[in-house]
Amino acid sequence: MEERELQAAGMSPGQLTDELADAAKALGEVRRQVARVIVGQKYMIDRLLIALLADGHVLLEGVPGLAKTTAVKAVANTLEAQFSRIQFTPDLLPADVIGTQIYNPRDGGFSTRKGPIFTNILLADEINRAPAKVQSALLEAMQERQVTLADQTWKLPRPFLVLATQNPIEQEGTYPLPEAQVDRFMMKLVVSYPSAEEERQILDRSALPVAQPDIVLDPARILRIQELTRRVTVKPMLAGYIVNLVQATRQPGSLSSRLARLVQFGASPRATIALAAAARAAAVLDGREFATPDDVKEVALDVLRHRVILTYEAEAEQVTPDQVIREILSTVKTP
Asked: 32-221 falls under which CATH superfamily?
């Protein structure tokens, strides 16, 4: 971060360095506490922490049994924050999520009953099982961090994160998420199977009592670290690189004719903002004051894979968004 910006924020360069070091230490402790509950899944845990620092929502996709829900709960349990879980089902109503107005016959008035969305961390389990009305109820909360009930608008607690899971292999009784909602997720994580060694550890732990992680951070500390994250330097050259990557998803023909026939729609400007925010958060995890091209490359797949829409030709050739994004990363010049 530039010295004049630090002065405007009332901080010295040394103070920022010290605070980032303290933040990295606390986040390392969060990792250790989560590891008491979850075997492996370092990729998923680190991305959840990046989302927490960057104040962004996450969509976790993976087959059942990969500890997606357990990982979200473990991270939430290390935070002295409110946590709610909603199991999404086809018969779920918007009022079950955001709340409703209750009529009081004694005085003829209405009172507000807030729903489980009024929390710090919301686990939306199997989010693609709920119909469009429920999905639309989440949009205002995810984008504006507020909920409108009747004629009143209520601010949601801070921090507020939606961590949603979905099963990619089961289609019966599910509803594809609208593109407008998918774009509100800062990252989409693809959770994979554990290694043989990790699975043996899981088996050994299964006969033991379930460990409970210790609380490491409270909401005030989280908000402070989020503020530090926003102060991490993204130099103009790196900002240009981020813009070039996103532009390449919209104009793939500028890179190759092959990409031009594979990509139908590119990433939105939200992807540009999310790439920079996630790169800053990755730097904070390492205790650094500046983001690097490696930070951008590290999070690029997670930020872009749900925002790049492929053509029917690409689907016929079984080309995935990840393959397209990797090709773009290898083609766009790194500063």
From this structure: P-loop containing nucleotide triphosphate hydrolases (3.40.50.300)
